[in-house]
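can u do me a favor
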């Protein structure tokens, strides 16, 4: 099943990417907001970087009962945010529409990268099959999100591919290309750094020991020195531009990006997220690879095993978000699955009766598999439940929906756009929505002890001293219990303040707060 025509080969490689682009238009057109909650944070980063800001002046955190300061400094790698800024300036549109535009584009480029690398490893059919298998995965709901991780994911297969070429050909130019691509991923999303580093390092060590290719040490050092040297130059530049920052502060802020807490998954959930077709065909592909035992097959197996084991490091006390690593396992699994599909199709061609209605059985098999993958992709992205995002930390009241904004939240956003005084800050009982409100309106948000306000422990003088102008109550955050229960219950790092309905909001509102707006879920009070 060889395709000699370069034009035909190029056409086949882009087919899965074109299909995912078209499928990704379904949620893009259906929802007026970009997908996910995290995108609001990254749009805010783009807003800050476009204004040459490092500390968010609108996000106020109070140090105990002391002075309010700008929020946590932003040290997030800026490449993705620069992309948003560039596209926004080029098309003269707001960053929310840029994020929506990026949804199908990033998804298509990720699939194209996987298809291209798969075809370079094992041929056109394997690459195209790998691309279609990704379409069948439940992780497709993450691939369409306009996030830095997905921008970095475009380059992950290419980093591994060119590092493999540097080992196979022993040419240093491929090590340089791979190192540069590694630098791009590192400047896009910090979570990519550790998986890529471990995969390339462990595979290089394996080749050195198993095949005794000692000359590869130079290529590896060249590969790792490119991002390392660049990091040193970047840090030096930042310290020169902002001399008030210290190296310790930068290191702490950067490490904070990795420390997101442990969120383990059951092993059956892994298979569910990969999808049935990926799981079945990748298992066949692994068996085929183990039988052949060549360096390329070892690469894909090592790639999968390393990231798989990394997802369980929470067992030894290292915080890890297992779900996020599933997508890095999906890439080698889809290519191994593509290898299995190619092998099965070749076996079908070898049979005596190879045609039905003058069509090759292998062709019918491939069309059937590709159609199933496409159908699964459509069903996944058409399901509205896949694009309702909830808070990550459980509590006794359950998770709350944090994206997309509800109709009530949109009404609050519009009220502040029309009536909000940007010189005064907002204290809100739902700080997830507080971040959305800040990004969409430019209204300053205070992370203040909201329960102190509800319990009457904060005076008008204190709030005026902190320049607080508005109190926003989320009426959905409530509970019912006896009077022995505290009036307010606080949960999470992005605090949620639940009030006791037996007492009611009206009985807890300070007398210096005047109601200026109310809808189904929210009440806005002005501090006067």
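np, heres the sequence
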């Amino acid at each position: 099943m060889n395709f000699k025509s370069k034009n035909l080969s190029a056409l086949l490689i882009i087919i899965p990417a074109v299909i995912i682009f078209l499928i990704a238009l379904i949620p893009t057109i259906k929802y007026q907001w970009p997908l996910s909650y995290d995108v609001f944070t990254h749009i805010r980063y783009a807003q800050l970087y476009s204004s040459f800001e490092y500390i968010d002046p609108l996000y106020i955190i109070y140090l105990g009962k002391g002075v309010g300061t700008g929020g946590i400094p932003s040290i997030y790698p800026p490449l993705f945010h620069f992309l948003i800024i560039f596209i926004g300036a080029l098309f003269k549109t707001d960053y929310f529409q840029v994020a929506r535009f990026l949804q199908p584009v990033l998804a298509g480029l990720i699939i194209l990268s996987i298809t291209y690398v798969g075809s370079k490893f094992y041929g056109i059919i394997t690459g195209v099959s790998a691309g279609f298998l990704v379409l069948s995965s439940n992780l497709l709901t993450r691939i369409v999100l306009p996030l830095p991780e997905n921008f970095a994911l475009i380059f992950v297969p290419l980093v591994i591919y060119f590092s493999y070429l540097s080992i196979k050909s022993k040419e240093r130019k491929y090590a340089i290309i791979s190192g540069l691509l590694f630098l791009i991923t590192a400047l896009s999303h910090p979570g990519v750094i550790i998986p890529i580093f471990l995969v390339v390092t462990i595979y290089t060590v394996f080749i050195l020991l198993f095949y005794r290719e000692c000359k590869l040490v130079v290529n590896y050092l060249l590969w790792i020195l490119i991002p390392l040297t660049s990091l040193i130059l970047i840090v030096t530049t930042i310290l020169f531009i902002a001399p008030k920052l210290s190296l310790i502060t930068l290191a702490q802020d950067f490490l904070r990006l990795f420390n997101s807490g442990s969120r383990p998954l059951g092993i059956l959930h892994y298979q569910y997220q990969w999808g049935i077709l990926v799981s079945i065909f990748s298992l066949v592909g692994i068996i085929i690879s183990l039988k052949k035992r060549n360096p390329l097959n070892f690469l894909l197996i090592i790639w999968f095993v390393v990231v798989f084991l990394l997802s369980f490091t929470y067992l030894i006390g290292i915080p890890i978000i297992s779900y996020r690593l599933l997508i890095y396992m999906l890439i080698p699994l889809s290519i191994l699955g593509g290898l299995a599909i190619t092998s099965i199709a070749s076996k079908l061609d070898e049979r005596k009766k190879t045609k039905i209605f003058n069509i090759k059985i292998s062709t019918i098999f491939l069309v059937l598999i590709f159609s199933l993958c496409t159908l699964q992709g459509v069903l996944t992205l058409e399901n509205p439940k896949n694009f309702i995002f909830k808070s990550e930390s459980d509590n006794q009241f359950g998770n709350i929906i944090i994206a997309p904004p509800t109709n009530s939240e949109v009404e609050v956003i519009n009220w502040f756009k029309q009536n909000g005084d940007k010189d005064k800050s907002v204290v809100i009982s739902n700080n997830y929505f507080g971040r959305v409100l800040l990004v969409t309106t430019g209204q300053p948000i205070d992370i203040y002890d909201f329960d102190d306000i509800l319990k009457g422990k904060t005076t008008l003088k204190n709030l005026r001293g902190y320049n607080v102008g508005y109190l926003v109550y989320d009426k959905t955050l409530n509970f019912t219990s006896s009077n022995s229960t505290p009036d307010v219950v606080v949960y999470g790092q992005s605090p949620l303040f639940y009030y006791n309905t037996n007492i009611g909001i009206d009985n807890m509102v300070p007398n210096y707060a005047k109601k200026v707006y109310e809808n189904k879920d929210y009440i806005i009070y002005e501090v006067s």
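Confidence is low (pLDDT under 50) at residues 63-68. hope that helps!!
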